[in-house]
């Protein structure tokens, strides 16, 4: 298949979508749902117009870059005055809700997938625990949703994937047998401090230096016109790449870097972020479109009622019950808890984790792939279709009771 044929089909789709993107953003049919659906349509199992033969590593890199850029730009836009008032909420979601999600996911997977080893089951639970910043963008940027809820979900999705990285590495090491049981306690203590600590340090340092340099040059008119879109994207990828290179979490570095950059860069920030949004959207589109071209075969090969059951449980009970439990006593109404519990989409981070696990060639890899891919696809469909309607309905309910959430 000619690369020019692939280029022609993708470019035609990208052009057509860009013409109506603003209109589609206000409907349930938008973003990742359309990208993946078109990738499946043009892929080898349907029309056969595109056969990218993209290996898992290439898709993983695309997903990493797209997620790093989204984390940086989304956290740069965070409302810090609101975040200071609600910081206890994302802290609870991350320190109580996330471990509860992994534990509940592990317990239900143990009941459903009895043929997998304990550590393979633990991997499934951890890979599907983090929520996705890119898929959740339709909610965390929707002004109909109260700022307190938006900022809490934004911080949660920005940090939970980075927090899960050392847990994933720990379970991979045990599942593959590369670490003896006697060494596991030392590894459990070392990985979080190293991965998270390096990520935070790199994000802070680069945002401080990069933000100062950008403010200095922009105030003198040295950065303008077409170059406006470059600095934020480059800084996001710099945070991600350096943290990964040094053994830290690039996702945490990107989020912390964006949060710091947004806090320190008041003047010019909006024009730089607006210019970067187009590049971020383009990278995300390529990632989801590429994912769509390769998943149909995986969905067919790995389907079973157990896989479908766990995927549905992962998006509902396994996510929503921990949210309820960790936010008890915070004064939220029931519809707010349901809303926050439901909007925990799974996407780019789970794709990255999937490629990490598949590379180890574990005995249960086929089941792990099937569960994660089905959960991601169902999340794209269900969260994509429900994001705008439920956000509007929830926002109207909050307005009707005077802003009480």
UniProtKB/TrEMBL annotation:
GO biological process terms held by the UniProt record: proton transmembrane transport
Subcellular location: Cell membrane
Principal location: membrane
Gene Ontology terms, MF aspect: antiporter activity
Gene Ontology CC: one annotated term: plasma membrane
Transmembrane spans: 31-52, 93-113, 159-179, 191-213, 233-261, 307-329, 336-356, 368-387
Residue ranges of domain Cation/H+ exchanger transmembrane in the record: 16-392
Signal sequence annotation: none
UniProt keyword annotations, A-Z: Antiport, Cell membrane, Ion transport, Membrane, Transmembrane, Transmembrane helix, Transport
One Pfam family it belongs to: Na_H_Exchanger
Recorded superkingdom: Bacteria
InterPro entries: Cation/H_exchanger_TM, Na+/solute_symporter_sf
Membrane topology: Multi-pass membrane protein
PANTHER family in alphabetical order: CNH1P, NA(+)/H(+) ANTIPORTER 1
UniProt protein name: K(+)/H(+) antiporter NhaP2
Source organism of this protein record: Novipirellula herctigrandis
Chain's gene name: nhaP2_2
């Amino acid at each position: 298949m000619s690369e020019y044929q692939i280029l022609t089909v993708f470019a035609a789709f990208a052009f057509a979508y860009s013409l109506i993107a603003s209109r589609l953003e206000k409907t349930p049919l938008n973003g990742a749902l359309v990208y993946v659906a078109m990738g499946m349509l043009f892929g080898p199992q349907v029309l056969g117009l595109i056969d990218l033969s993209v290996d898992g590593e290439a898709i993983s890199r695309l997903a990493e870059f797209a997620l790093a850029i989204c984390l940086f730009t989304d956290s740069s836009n965070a409302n810090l005055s609101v975040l200071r008032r609600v910081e206890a909420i994302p802290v609870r979601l991350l320190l109580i809700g996330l471990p509860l999600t992994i534990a509940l996911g592990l317990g239900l997977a143990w009941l459903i997938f009895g043929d997998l080893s304990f550590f393979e089951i633990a991997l499934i639970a951890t890979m599907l625990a983090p929520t996705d910043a890119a898929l959740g963008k339709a909610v965390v940027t929707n002004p109909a949703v109260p700022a307190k809820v938006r900022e809490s979900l934004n911080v949660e999705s920005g940090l939970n994937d980075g927090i899960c990285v050392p847990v994933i590495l720990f379970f991979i090491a045990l599942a593959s047998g590369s670490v003896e049981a006697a060494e596991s306690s030392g590894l459990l203590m070392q990985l979080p401090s190293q991965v998270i600590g390096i990520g935070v340090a790199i994000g802070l340092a680069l945002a401080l230096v990069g933000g100062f340099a950008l403010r200095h040059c922009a105030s003198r008119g040295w950065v303008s016109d077409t170059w406006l879109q470059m600095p934020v994207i480059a800084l996001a990828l710099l945070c991600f790449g350096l943290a990964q290179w040094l053994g830290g979490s690039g996702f945490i570095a990107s989020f912390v870097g964006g949060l710091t950059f947004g806090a320190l860069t008041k003047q010019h920030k909006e024009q730089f972020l607006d210019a970067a949004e187009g590049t971020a959207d383009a990278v995300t589109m390529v990632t989801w479109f590429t994912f769509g071209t390769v998943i149909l075969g995986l969905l067919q090969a790995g389907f079973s009622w157990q896989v479908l059951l766990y995927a549905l449980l992962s998006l509902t009970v396994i996510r929503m019950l921990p949210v309820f439990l960790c936010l008890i006593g915070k004064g939220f109404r029931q519809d707010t808890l349901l809303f926050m519990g439901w909007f925990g989409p799974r996407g780019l981070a789970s794709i990255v984790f999937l490629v990490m696990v598949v590379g180890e060639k574990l005995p249960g890899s086929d089941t792990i792939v099937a569960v994660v891919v089905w959960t991601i696809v169902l999340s794209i469909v269900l969260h994509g279709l429900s994001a705008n309607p439920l956000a509007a309905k929830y926002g109207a309910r909050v307005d009707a009771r005077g802003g009480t959430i």
